[in-house]
Write a structure and sequence with these properties.
By secondary structure, the chain is an alpha/beta fold. It has helices at about 15-25, 45-55, 135, 140-145, 160, 190, 250, and strands at about 1-10, 35-40, 65-70, 90-95, 100-105, 115-125, 155, 170-175, 180-185, 200-205, 205-215, 225-230, 240-245, 260-265. The chain folds into two domains: about 1-160, Rossmann fold, CATH 3.40.50; about 170-265, Bacterial fluorinating enzyme like (Elongation Factor Tu (Ef-tu), domain 3, Beta Barrel), CATH 2.40.30.90. A seven-stranded mixed beta sheet has the order 2-1-3-5-4-6-7, with helices on both faces. A seven-stranded mixed beta sheet has the order 8-9-13-12-11-10-14. Helix 1 crosses helix 4.
Length: about 260
């Protein structure tokens, strides 16, 4: 099975995904399944988080041939007026597990895979000419990659020089259960001292609640808030805020992505 997985800041079921999929399909010679994962508008942390979780899946958890395409382009790399809808460029990379990625180089969109890239290249493609570049410009490159044509590669890049490190201690992703996945990760100093059963407080924006450090999300009573390593992150799991029988997202008054999660001992 061949899969093109698209991560983009369009709403689930939005017309933008439909138009994008149609444009990509035009350039495909073989049969591919197209699948979408939406992230909040302009949220490059959520984009990078999803790119990492999808791209770094083990071999038994992904399609035998997988391409990952991600587009979240808030155009915040330059504050001045932009000519002809110019935006961030797109980069091509190959992960250590050989999964190829095409990702718009915006904010933290590549940050969570920065240390997992064995190749990274600039791409010879216009960065201006359309407000909807992922429909009008980028599908041709996706099709070329699907057809094993890498002639779009331009200059080889050093990931450590062109990609920022991921932020620590912020909300990365809200899932459909209202769990808040954070960028705190197993082994980091900020969480290394926490022990299961420990009582802490979590402050997210202007809201503070008691929470219990847990070894898993369900190791608390109904109605309690747990702070524990979650299901994302593969070898080094990301910690998440979980309310058993409820929604951490609602309890903390619907915080936006990239909001700081403060641990208070």
């Amino acid at each position: 099975m061949k899969l093109i997985h698209v991560v983009a800041d369009y709403a689930a079921g939005d017309l933008a995904f439909t138009e994008l999929f149609s444009a990509i399909a035009y350039h495909l010679e073989d049969n591919f399944i197209l699948h979408d994962t939406p992230v909040p508008s302009f949220d490059t942390v959520a984009t990078g988080f999803c790119v990492s979780q999808i791209g770094l899946q083990s071999e038994e958890l992904r399609a035998k041939e997988t391409i990952l395409f991600a587009n979240c382009a808030p155009r915040k790399d330059r504050r001045e007026e932009r000519k002809n809808n110019d935006g961030e460029g797109i980069l091509y990379g190959v992960l250590q597990n050989d999964v190829p990625v095409l990702i718009v180089n915006s904010g933290y969109s590549l940050s969570f895979i920065r240390d997992e890239l064995k190749e990274l290249w600039s791409v010879n493609v216009p960065t201006e000419g359309s407000q909807f570049r992922s429909r009008d410009i980028f599908p041709k490159i996706v099709g070329m990659l699907a057809n094993k044509d890498l002639s779009f590669c331009q200059d080889r890049l050093d990931p450590q020089e062109v990609i920022p490190a991921p932020p620590v201690g912020v909300i990365a992703y809200k899932d459909s259960f209202g769990n808040l996945k954070t960028t705190y990760r197993e082994g980091q100093n900020e969480v290394a001292h926490l022990e299961p059963g420990q009582e802490i407080r979590l402050k997210i924006k202007d809201t503070t609640h008691a929470a219990k450090v847990a070894s898993g999300s369900f190791n608390v009573k109904e109605g309690e808030i747990a702070f524990s390593p979650g299901s994302s992150g593969h070898g080094k799991r990301f910690w998440e805020v979980f309310k058993r029988g409820g929604s951490a997202y609602e309890t903390f008054h619907q915080p936006e992505g990239e909001t700081e999660v403060e641990i208070i001992l």
